[in-house]
Write a structure and sequence with these properties.
213 residues, alpha/beta, TIM Barrel, 8-stranded parallel β-barrel, two-stranded antiparallel sheet, 7 helices, 31% helix, 22% strand, binds ligand LARABZUK
C-alpha cells in the first residue's frame, strides 16, 4: 500500500490548492510563533475553510498550553494535534482527553534509544512521527531539512501507527519509503524554495515520487 503523505507548513491558498490537487492525505498548519511557517488564527481559519473536509488538517504545536490549543483547534477545525516539543506521555494523554482529537507525538531521533522512547507513548498518543533531532542551539525543533539515519528504524515494531519526517524531498522520498517501510511520509522544507515559501511543483513532485514506490 502506498505511504500516506503529509505536507507540513502550508501558509497560502495557492500552495494549499497544490496540496489538494496532489491529493496528499494530511496538511500541516504551524502554530509555533518562531517558525517561518507560523499561521495566525485568522489565516489558519481561512485556509481551513478553503480545504473543507477534503484533507485532514493537522495542527503543529511546540509545548502548547491549553488556551493555544483550544484557539487553534477551533479556528482551523483541526482533525489532529501534532505535539513537536518536549511533551511527556502524561501531557500527550491529557491533550487527547481534553480536546478529543488524535494526538501525533513527534519523537526526535538521533540514536537507537530515541526510537525506543516512542513506546512510552503507546497509551498516550495515536500516532508517532519520527523526525530528525535538531541541534540544541537550533532555532526550531522541526522543519530544518535535517534527516537522521533511517537504519535506526530497521525492523521496527510499533504498537502505534507511525510516520517518517526529516529532510525528505522529491528526490529522496521514494528511497526513504523503500528503506524504512514508512506508512506515512512528512515534509516541509523539502518542498520549499526558501524557508517558509512552498514550491507548488515540488509539492506535486513529492507526492508523485512517494506514490512511485
Ligand atoms: O516546520 C516548522 O517550521 C516547524 C517548527 C517547529 C516545529 C515543527 C515544525 N515542523 C513540523 C513538521 O512536521 C515538519 O514537516 C518536519 O519537522 C520535517 O521538516 P523538514 O525536515 O523540513 O521536512
Amino acid at each position: 500500500m502506498a505511504a500516506a503523505i503529509k505536507i507540513c507548513g502550508i501558509s497560502t491558498p495557492e500552495t494549499l490548492d497544490a496540496v489538494l490537487d496532489a491529493q496528499a492525505d494530511h496538511v500541516g498548519f504551524n502554530f509555533f510563533p518562531p517558525s517561518p511557517r507560523h499561521l495566525g488564527l485568522a489565516e489558519a481559519s481561512a485556509l481551513a475553510a478553503r480545504a473543507g473536509s477534503r484533507i485532514s488538517k493537522v495542527g503543529v504545536f511546540v509545548d502548547p498550553d491549553d488556551d493555544a490549543l483550544r484557539d487553534a483547534i477551533s479556528a482551523a477545525k483541526l482533525d489532529a494535534v501534532q505535539l513537536h516539543g518536549d511533551e511527556s506521555p502524561a501531557r500527550s494523554a491529557a491533550v487527547r482527553a481534553q480536546f478529543g482529537l488524535p494526538v501525533w507525538k513527534v519523537i526526535p531521533v538521533a540514536t537507537a534509544s530515541d526510537v525506543v522512547r516512542a513506546q512510552a507513548y503507546t497509551d498516550a498518543a495515536d500516532f508517532i512521527l519520527f523526525d530528525a533531532k535538531t541541534p540544541k542551539d537550533a532555532q526550531l525543533p522541526g522543519g530544518m531539512g535535517l534527516r537522521f539515519d533511517w537504519g535506526l528504524l530497521s525492523g521496527i515494531r510499533m504498537s502505534l501507527p507511525w510516520g517518517l519526517a526529516g529532510g525528505l524531498s522529491p528526490t529522496n522520498v521514494a528511497g526513504a519509503i523503500a528503506a524504512t517501510g514508512a506508512p506515512l511520509v512528512d515534509t516541509s522544507s523539502g518542498v520549499e524554495s526558501v524557508p517558509g515559501v512552498k514550491d507548488m511543483d515540488k509539492i506535486a513532485a513529492f507526492c508523485k515520487a512517494a506514490r512511485s514506490v
